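Exercise 7. Given the encoded structure of a 185-residue chain, write a plausible sequence.
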């Protein structure tokens, strides 16, 4: 499950041919370090194969992006996240914030899976929602705001991306940076 030191030695699945007998999971999970997991949607489910990130703190977790597929039968993101939270914390209903690197469909399609999840906030993916939730209203577009997960914090900033609806996040203490370059995809 989790590692004490960062582990990026992972082979990401690249999808399987339509008629292949091998099956890969709809979501590949790699526990990077501590309470930080990197997930990738299978190319077999959607050709975009986006990455998603789960940061688990002592009081709540942050899921960054929800993938390119809304259908939980094809892409069981909520069930997977609940299972991961149960593994990491012992509580499948652990408090969760769902946020986005930007609002493209391959990063927000799974949002409806979390709509009725208790103790969950799904942050809108437009710039105004991001600014309001993360407290960036007075410092946009150059500011930074800390988002405390307890034991781990995430910094949200609008500095890196060229898109006004995009943002970047870094998780401490794992020093993993997720910077969106939304105009480039």
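Solution.
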């Amino acid at each position: 499950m989790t590692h004490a030191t960062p582990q990026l030695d992972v082979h990401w699945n690249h999808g399987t041919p339509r008629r292949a007998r091998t099956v890969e999971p709809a979501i590949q999970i790699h526990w990077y370090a501590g309470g930080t997991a990197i997930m990738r949607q299978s190319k077999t489910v959607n050709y975009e194969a986006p990455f998603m990130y789960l940061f688990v703190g002592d009081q709540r977790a942050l899921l960054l992006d929800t993938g390119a597929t809304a259908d939980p039968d094809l892409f069981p993101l909520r069930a997977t996240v609940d299972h991961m939270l149960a593994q990491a914390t012992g509580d499948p209903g652990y408090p969760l914030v769902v946020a986005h690197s930007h609002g493209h469909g391959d990063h927000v399609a799974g949002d409806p899976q979390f709509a009725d999840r208790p103790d969950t906030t799904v942050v809108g993916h437009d710039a105004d929602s991001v600014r309001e939730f993360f407290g960036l209203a007075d410092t946009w577009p150059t500011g930074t705001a800390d988002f405390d997960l307890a034991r781990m914090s995430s910094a949200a900033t609008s500095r890196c991306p060229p898109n006004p609806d995009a943002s970047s996040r870094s998780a401490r203490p794992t020093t993993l940076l997720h910077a969106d370059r939304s105009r480039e995809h």
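Remark. The chain has a mean pLDDT of 82. Students should compare their own answers with the one above.
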